[in-house]
Amino acid sequence: MRRKLKRLLLRVGGREVRCELCGQPLFRARPFVTGGRVKLQGAEDALVAVEFDSMNTLVFRHVEADRCPALRAEP
Ligand SMILES: [Zn+2]
């Protein structure tokens, strides 16, 4: 029941996060600020790389080359 509710909340209020390189969807998430952390509910199972692009912008990318056309295209 809790998983169904979580999935429904993500579907309604979540935002799709896409790979910066290829543009394919990585996961659907809702951000929550808790104390000194920003938690992305919905990103628990995603295998992605993340880094700051600027002081307040995070960039997400595929990790596995077989899932990312842009990574496969690199020499
Ligand atoms: Zn990608």
Q: How many H/I helical runs?
A: 2
Average pLDDT over all residues: 91
Unreliable residue runs: none
Question: How much helicity do the residues have?
Answer: 10-25%
Give the N-to-C terminal Cα separation: 46 Å
Class by helix and strand content? Answer: alpha+beta
Whole-number total of structural domains: 1
Strand/helix succession? HEEEEEH
Largest sheet: 3 strands, antiparallel
- Bound ligands, each once: zinc ion
Tell me what portion of residues adopts beta-strand conformation.
35-45%
Count the beta strands: 5
Cα gyration radius (Å) = 14 Å
What is the topology, as strand order, of the major beta sheet? 1-2-3
Overall, the morphology is globular
Structure description:
By secondary structure, the protein is α+β, with helices and mostly antiparallel strands. The mean pLDDT is 91. Bound molecules: zinc ion (ZN).
Give me a quick take on this structure.
The chain is 23% helix and 43% strand.
Key features of this structure:
75 residues; alpha+beta; 3-stranded antiparallel β-sheet; 5 strands; 43% strand; binds zinc ion
Which secondary structure elements does this structure contain, and how are they paired or packed?
Elements: H1 2-13, E1 15-18, E2 25-34, E3 37-41, E4 48-54, E5 57-62, H2 69-73
Antiparallel strand pairs: 1-2, 2-3, 4-5
The structure holds zinc ion.
The site of zinc ion (ZN) has 8 residues, from strand 5.
